[in-house]
């Protein structure tokens, strides 16, 4: 956003600009991570040319991203669940399920041992 026209437009619209250091994507790691997921998980977006279709698709993606897609950084729960306080319970239930599955595998393996 260093072009003069762009800077003037941003000032006119009262949009505050923040610039990371050139060649340092970790300055804005959260948005870089989001863009990486957006491009990787929904590669069809650049082909959309109609603004209304893109808006509708982004609305669908926003709902999926926040309510369905599991996020590694918050313990593999959707952000909506984490935001509403359901994340810890989901993680506890998952851990309990893993413990039960392991115990069942051990029991099954011991029973089938020759």
Describe this structure in words.
The chain contains 5 helices and no strands. The mean pLDDT is 90. The longest helix is centred in the C-terminal third of the chain and has 25 residues, at 87-111. It has a domain at 48-114. It is elongated. Helices cover 61% and strands 0% of the residues. The protein has helices at 4-12, 29-41, 51-67, 79-83, 87-111.
Topology:
Elements lengths: L3 H9 L16 H13 L9 H17 L11 H5 L3 H25 L3
Strand content: under 5%
> Which geometry do the CA atoms define?
elongated
Low-confidence stretches: none
Tally of alpha and pi helices: 5
Largest sheet: none
The percent of residues in helical segments reads: 55-70%
Q: What is the element string, with H for helices and E for strands?
A: HHHHH
Number of strands: 0
N-to-C span: 70 Å
Mean pLDDT: 90
Global structural class: mainly alpha
State Rg. Answer: 22 Å
């Amino acid at each position: 956003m260093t072009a003069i026209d762009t800077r003037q437009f941003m000032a006119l619209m009262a949009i505050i600009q923040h610039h990371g250091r050139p060649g340092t994507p970790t300055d804005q790691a959260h948005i870089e991570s989001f863009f990486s997921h957006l491009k990787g998980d929904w590669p069809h977006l650049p082909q959309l040319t109609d603004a209304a279709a893109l808006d509708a698709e982004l609305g669908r993606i926003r709902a999926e991203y926040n309510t369905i897609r599991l996020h590694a950084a918050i313990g593999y729960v959707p952000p909506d669940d984490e935001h509403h306080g359901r994340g810890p319970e989901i993680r506890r239930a998952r851990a309990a399920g893993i413990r039960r599955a392991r115990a069942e595998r051990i029991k099954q393996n011991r029973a089938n041992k020759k």
